[in-house]
């Protein structure tokens, strides 16, 4: 027997893995990230870079670049998110108007942009200009009549089908992960930047990421998420897509305070939001489950086309469903000023009124308001039903705006109702103390905003971040109490029917191993009750530190689908040495066969510092100590599962090993924890499927 380290020329070859090789430390798509391991690796890497920084100026520069690399990535995320949001805002405005007509001077102009450039546009007819023509005017030179209406109707449907087909085709061919909202796929800084530009709410975006998106959120991530959200908001503000120096289309400012008596309708809107959230989650999950378990899921393009056709056919006759949802929300949020031309502002004015523009008193509703009320009621029913079927289709689509639209329509109708009650019955005791005749008492737009917050909260179970987002939309602290009351009420009502928000429900439906921090575990079980292998199961698949060949390991990898393997001294002692990831073993063996001469199937693999003693004619051994995690997280077999669950949540573990006096007994993965929690909640643990 001779020491393999003494083999001629073998020292450098067998230690080649002391240097990094491609793809080590990466994860397959949808694999759980082991945050504790990644943090340890990052700390080791940073320590090495810092120690080398004193060797030369170049190493010092490299250390500075490494220190700023995370911030540079956040800067790029913010810049890209803001730029894309600006482009999307402009494109959506143009594509929405393209369904109704085209600008003759420049086809890439939206209706509003086209009329801006026209010298013949008057203020009274600011929505009409010779340069903008509807499709009936362009194709058959008719603007009125049944034939013009039918032609515009058909063009609206055709454009909607074309856009939907383009969206679903791009998802299927180029970006399958782009479908849905992206929220269930747990990316903190990106979510913060996205919400920041969607609502002009950088602080709300960070809080949303903290409250809803992340279960592992260290302080460093908080600061970087805030930076990304700030850069994204600044970039969008620089682009100024709406031409009003605002980040969102539906930014509003109210000038009338709210009164204590209005808390009652605000709370009623919260109840409505909670009930809507419960109805939506149950119906949408049932439909999405049917999509996954039937032939319907095999034809995503056909589903999108059919739903789009139905949506366009029903939406066109109603002006509140024909326009884009963002424009609808903007109109519902707006306070009725002297210059508003919306049907919602068709009040009967007092000709003797001499009030400032921002202090218009409550007035009796005109025919336009009553027409708008029944149109809004029909639009509300349509939005409630169609959103159930559209969320979850294979197109990039979120839930924030549709949910807000449902709540805004309900809130605006309630606000108009309260406003008219206050006007016609100002002598009632509920109005007598704060609503005098001729005063501006009720702001229907505020009710729309409260309703939007209530419905969004009922669907997502957001509270703190939701209130902050709405606060940043209005720009005033005065309306925080109504928003808080509606958000908390909607959450309480929705939680009474089920604790899951829509994102948690879709996470479970899609089989993501997500350990929700909101779920409490109070059962008195131990780690030994959950670990595998259990009684009657095959023994745990392990690697030994210096007695297995390359072929043995490749066979083990081929015959199992585990994400990693514990490494022990020997099968007899079962003394734990560390843990090796499956992906890194595969990559290490592949790279060794390509780069190191003499590595064959019967080469011994070892995880120790020094190679084992081998016969002189043995093939070169393969050193894999670099891929070994020498400090895997371990618990004893008598550790309470309550503690184990907290460890998985707070440290972001992928798995932990169970030992007794240093001897390996078993392993607990995050999926084992989730199945055990389901079992303790009287659910079938085998029904918990993971994708």
Automatic annotation (TrEMBL):
Main location: membrane
A Pfam family assignment: Voltage_CLC
Location in the cell: Endosome membrane; Membrane
Transmembrane portions of the chain: 68-92, 153-175, 187-210, 222-243, 263-287, 299-316, 372-392, 399-418, 446-471
PROSITE patterns assigned: CBS (PS51371)
GO cellular component: early endosome; endosome membrane; Golgi apparatus; plasma membrane; synaptic vesicle
GO MF term set: antiporter activity; ATP binding; voltage-gated chloride channel activity
UniProt entry tagged with the keyword Lipid biosynthesis: no
Keywords: Antiport, ATP-binding, CBS domain, Chloride, Endosome, Ion transport, Membrane, Nucleotide-binding, Repeat, Transmembrane, Transmembrane helix, Transport
InterPro entries, alphabetized: CBS_dom, CBS_dom_sf, Cl-channel_core, Cl_channel-4, ClC
Membrane disposition: Multi-pass membrane protein
Residue ranges occupied by any CBS domain in the UniProt entry: 531-597, 628-686
Family to which the UniProt record says this protein belongs: Belongs to the chloride channel (TC 2.A.49) family.
Name by which UniProt lists this protein: Chloride channel protein
Lineage, broadest ranks: Eukaryota, Metazoa, Chordata, Craniata, Vertebrata
Gene: CLCN4
